[in-house]
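Quick illustration, no need to memorize.
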Amino acid sequence: MLEAHNVCDKLPNKNVVAWSALIAGYAENDQGHPALKCFEQMLEEGVYPNPVTFIFVIKACGLAGAINKGRHIHTQIIYRGFEREIFVTNTLINMYSKSGLLQDAYNTFEKLPIKDIASWNAMIQGYSMNHDDGKLALGLFDSMHVHGMKPDAITFACVLSACGRANLMVKGRQIFKMMNEAHRISPMIDHFTCMVDLLARAGKLDEAEKLLESSPFSPPKDMWRALLSACIKYAEIGIGQRCIFRLGRSAPECQQIYVNAT
């Protein structure tokens, strides 16, 4: 980014494309504050932002935790008539959702004249991150079907996560089954992770272990560790021993769990 910034500084006339590229670079590298600083400098030099600029500035606001700044940017977006640009508005929904401002996210979502799959996913993901809003995420999921929008793999990951946080095991099972049978979407590792977490929370350890064993992927240690922790909570020795075997007896996490258990 330092080299990119130096190249940009050497340009005799930096236009909106150059500024947007620099701001995007910072935002894509999780450097929110430098991105916002570039945006301020761009405005000071009299260069007007375009929709692409706003997409990455909004993302930068989320990265920097600058929500008040994000609200101000939202006002500029409305003033410049970019609120109907779906990619801009989807980024706004993401920013508000990840900041816990779900009502702001929903208000922005509702104003979209046409909602694409990314719009629905952003809103469902926002609800799925909150323990109290799992049923709202499921309500939106059902509403997608009413509006003729087909869910994708990201949608299912968000909904399964919402089921886990809200302890909706039966609904989670139904949705996991629905993925392949009704929508022909093969579960990926994120979906298996959500289901193992959901089953483990509910004490369905046999089912969680079978699901891990049936996974077409090599389950990461985090999944076995989560199941092992549930085994301690529910005093399930047999499955716990198999988890330890999978993790490796000498693994630091196993040693720590032994200490916690005793």
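Residues 27 and 60 are 5 Å apart (CA to CA).
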